[in-house]
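Researcher: Let's run the pair from yesterday's discussion. Sequence first, then tokens, for each.
Model: Starting with the first of the pair.
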Amino acid sequence: MLLLKLAAQDLLDLNSRRRMVPHLAARWRHFRGADASLTERSAWAESLVSLANDLVAADRGNVEMIVECAATLDETDRPGDPRLIDVVLVGHHPQGRRLSVQLVELKRWSTVTRVERATAELVHVAGMDSKKHPALQLRDYYEAFTSSRGPLHGLDFECGGFAYLHNATEASVQALIDVDSPTGPYAHVYTNDRRERLLSDLRQHFTDEGGASAAEILLRSMGLRNTPLLDAMIWSRGDDTVFTLRGRQKVVADQILETASKILPDPRRPALVPDERRVIFLVTGGAGTGKSAIGLQIKAELEAQGRTVKYASGSRAFNGAVQEHVGYGDREFRETFTYFSSFVTPPDPPLDVLICDEAHRIRDRSTSRFWKPEQQGTQPQVDELLDASRLTVFFLDEGQSVRPNEVGTVSLIEDAARRREAHIARYGLREQFRCGGSDAYIRWVRAVLGVTDEAPEQWTPDGLMHVEVADNPEELERIIRTEALAGASARMVAGYCWPWTKPLGKDKRLEADVRIGDWHRPWNADSETFCENEAPPSKIWSVHENGLGQIGCVYTAQGLEWDWCGVIMGEDMVRRDGRWVFRRGKDRQGPEAGVKRVAVPGSFDPKVKAGSVDDEEFARLVRHAYHVLMTRASRATVLYSVDEETRDYLKEQVGEVQIHGLRPTWENLPQEARVPHLPRPRRGKRPRRNRKRPDAQGPDLRLF
């Protein structure tokens, strides 16, 4: 948990635009569930700015300031409020360039006296009740950071801390600095008349550059930077441990595993009287809250115990990427991933565990135009899923349903559980790990698109996620291609606002259907095999190097992520007179057989045509589709709308883009953040590693 991460000079720039305090207040409300007090807000406005000014004055403006920060994600599960450090300063130490961290308590106290003559641990602050010496708070923070479970464990670092009373003089707070005051590397106290000493010490603690690089190391150790899903799976394929879960993620996973151990038979010692109870876990959370991380981790651990487990999804893009990219050549691995529609005939005997990811995509019935009549589902799909296993785990986000026949909701699953008299356990995930861990960006997207009733506000750069608006499609493509060629993962996606031509002729040529002025590009290939110029089939478009030249849509992007994502908004959703207007398109015959062109601009998605959904449902699904597309990036989103008025609105909401060091191009990233993505494994089943003991520590991979 953190509220803001910016270099000192960027924080001052943000404050000059009067955006710092509103941003911090919004983040505070999200995490704490209540508005920040006026005292808290004024403290941010005064104390943070004072400290940032001092860093700049010391020629240390590149030192990163992490504001209102918990040491680890586990901190959020402590009884009561989590311990939040006012500021963590992060950079490199001048000697040896090891990691340098200073924990800071900001106090606006002007007069402090001793409460008891015998001790300096308790002091009286003018206008307040008795307070603990700030060094005692810093001692707790110091231990949380440097202990065997803290984020600095195993790193080469220097860590200290200090209290900064920028309104006080040394004489007015003598009780804090007397000879019998607490001591330690975290117990320094600076006042206004000791400012020169503070500036000198800041120069001794930090170099004048490298703050972003140091912050990247620390954020990874704190679990606030993710390992992309497919990279983590390739690395660990065949291992019991896939991800290191944090905070609420770990709580949910542990509860599922514990329940499985209670109700499922021991494969080595079958029970004389089998336990017939059925249990359903329902885990909700927004995009990037770690649902897939939990699902994939418990799948690996349950399989290691000898359980029969399937991982089902309603997303062809997700399953295709896992099966074709991660499981290339490993039939046993690939077959453990399946679809919701695969259980029309229940397995006999039932599976031990069925994990249903993206359960918001559950359909009303399991049907296909390619199936014979006797193969079609005859009962609700959710019932088929529940009949397939003893323990069923559903992960869902109702805000990501994008098709009219996607009926997966909390109430649907709860009703089905009651019909079977199954025990149901509900959990909610909140911490955000996609989009750079920026829940502020997620909220901004939802407000801008009108997914929520929250009034949109101009985007505030937070050092975690970047967003900008391109003036034309050529500029958007140039940015995406530049980042991809430099080493980042990057893709272009668009609203479904152009006809989609199947590959043409024997050579399977891709028609350039997405046409904006003189800029023409094809959709990703609607094919099961490679097409002309080695264009990949749609199921691996998201991960294959040749997928960069094609445009994806919500159906081929959902469930996946890239470092950079270019999002093209078509004319299915445009801004008019201060509100969103939604349009359906019409096509006309193109230049050759099988090719269509746009006659009336708007949506060309056959799943939301006029005969299948009404106008209100159409608007909801289009909003959700763009919400999915705009939350696929882990570092930066580039937006472009073909409609000028909509483009102007987006620019107004994004605001000024260029702030020093915040545009996370590959060349601007610190070396520690330039993590190459793993290639597709070679054909052939990868030998499984030795099984881990139940208490063994897995690889330090974190997802979302």
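Model: Moving on to the second of the pair.
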Amino acid sequence: MAEVKNSAPGGAGSRSGSPRREGTGGWTRFVTARPRLTLLVALVLTALAVLAGGGVADRMGSGGWEDPAAESTYATEALGDRFPGSQPNLLLLVDAGEAGADAPAVAAEARRLAERLDAEPGVDGVGSYWSTGSPALRSEDGRKAVIAARIAGEEKEAAAVLDRIAPEYRGTHGPVEVSLGGGLAVRHEMQTVIQEDLLRAELIALPLTLVLLVMVFGSAVAALLPLGVGIVAILGTNAVLRGLTEITDVSVFAQNLTTALGLGLAIDYALFVVRRYREELAAGADTYTAVRTTLRTAGRTVLFSALTVAVSLSAMLVFPQYFLRSFAYAGIAVVLLAATAALTLLPAALVLLGDRVNALDLRRLLRRRRTPGARPAEGGGAGWARAAALVMRRAPVFAVLTTAGLVLLGLPFLGVKFGTADDRQLPVTASSRVLQDELRHAFPGDPGGGLTVLAEGEATPAQYAAYRERIGALDGVVRVDGPVTAAGGHAYFTVVPEGETVGAGAQRAVTELRAAPAPFATSVTGQAAVLVDSKDALAERLPWAAAIVVIVTLLLVFLLTGSVLIPVQAVVLNALSLTAMFGAVVWVFQDGHLADLLGFTATGDIETTLPVLMFCVAFGLSMDYGVFLLSRIKEEYDATGDHEHSVRFGLSRTGGLITAAAVILAVVMIAIGTSRVTNTKMLGLGVALAVLMDAMVVRSLLVPSVMKLTGRLTWWAPGPLRRFHDRFGISESDEPAAEAKDAEAPEEHREMTALRR
């Protein structure tokens, strides 16, 4: 049986005689031949995944924002090896109360604590106010002072040392009260908070998702199927991440994406499959025929959608920061597992359930009130068709106003300022955050907040002095301390820039320090240097990431539609759907609007990697919904050759589905957004906004209005590309010959066929 693709303008012509692509026929037989065995094997594998993925969060890191090949990373590691005291990651805040930090009994107890800390295995570079006399290590009121140290080793090893020693030092020691902080303590507490918040988010999202699924399907049995697919995807991804922690660093933040996409995409795919299966049953098909048709139509779309989302997420692999790479690991794994479960476990379950997929129908009472014999429209299809018709009648107005509105919402992003994540990501009650706030507000300088210049190479005291004088004269440099020297021609200078620790002045100072001539090799580190290097790494690789997303998206959408214009529209409209998210990120999280309501501290900047992460995630999800809509439009266009009717039909069949899926995914993302860590809150709430804008504005208003304006030209492709699509393209049409026959029938017959569908 041949597949016939109907005529399109611009020379598309009649495309017949292409071999019919059976595609999923063999797969259908495989997953439906022994459904009980399929589900049993899946159950065993899921149980193994639970065991394999147990404790994965404990093996993850909470950093990963720096470029491992950057100058600042090299300098930090070299200083940590040769001058441990220059890079403290553990701070003990000693509170002497009314007695004051200089009281003899206080000083004696502080020195005893410092000596004890210096003797701890894994701890070195211990220094304090009482050993150095540095005024930067004593509070302005004289009541508090700092002991600084460095815990050596990789992040996980250092965290284990911190867990061991923290209970012994925190609390009352004679005349002083000691609290712990520093970069290591901040990251460790952040990891703990994220784990707690993730558990709470799952407890919020799962029951709410089940309620929404019951509202969408009516049937409690049908509602449980998407939830089951999501749980399998999440557990499987945790096992994958646990394996990856053995060979590379993985960020604990990636677990949030695992939960969000595991539930969101699994529900999307299962919604699409189950809805199509129920349509086929309602049309009179038996169970096996309905499953076969579902896999050959919706199944292809699910597979195609999973590829587009995975490609968007894989773009993060080009960046060197393991924070971003971790989201690619988690995202790709959860997308592929969700699609696999939706195309394997779900069909097996549907074969066993048959008509019982509609059991426990909680909307039965509503249907009894309808006119006898009337069939309810799936997803409010008639309403969506009328809305699409209205939009297309006023296409220029809707296209211009919607585009202008989205651009306007995105304008705040023009004022974005990039920074680094610090302790203010944590809630104000977090112990390490409390200590850092003390240092920030009660001390004359932030210990560890300046810049450090590592000097390597033999030099005379005169050369060191001349270099110190030279960098001290640079604009924006307040003070230069040092050099502190060591054998082998190594030394370092501490530079205090004016203004904020990672402000514009500090970043300019990094550039000027690196450009300053010296008689020895120099490298600069510090928070501002890490930020400069991170921005440079992102800027260098961002074009490559964007090219991957755009080029592969264009290719995949072309394979789905056979059109040259639709892939371009998809990329542009998806980008427009993200403008509200980026504008809101700056307006809310950078500028601080709604900070009190949402419970976070605005720092005046956005962590550098977050926009990249949010773009990749939100763009992939937008393409997910775009594929669902375009596949049904293309299916109907192949059957009828009627462009406007196909757009109305596509929206009538998927509008309710996409909206329901978007609302459910938004609920999951908002649950993630209840996190007490600002970056996680920003990710969850920002992506939730992007998903809702895409489903309710772009797919409902912008897509039909733009497709109306482009008319039948929408489906044009030059001859060589048409032939390429005929050979390699993907079609959701289940019965090509029947559809070709419909296309040749009179208009009235085509309309009746569409209504029967």
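Researcher: Give me one sentence on the second I can quote.
Model: Confidence is low (pLDDT under 50) at residues 1-23, 369-380, 734-757.
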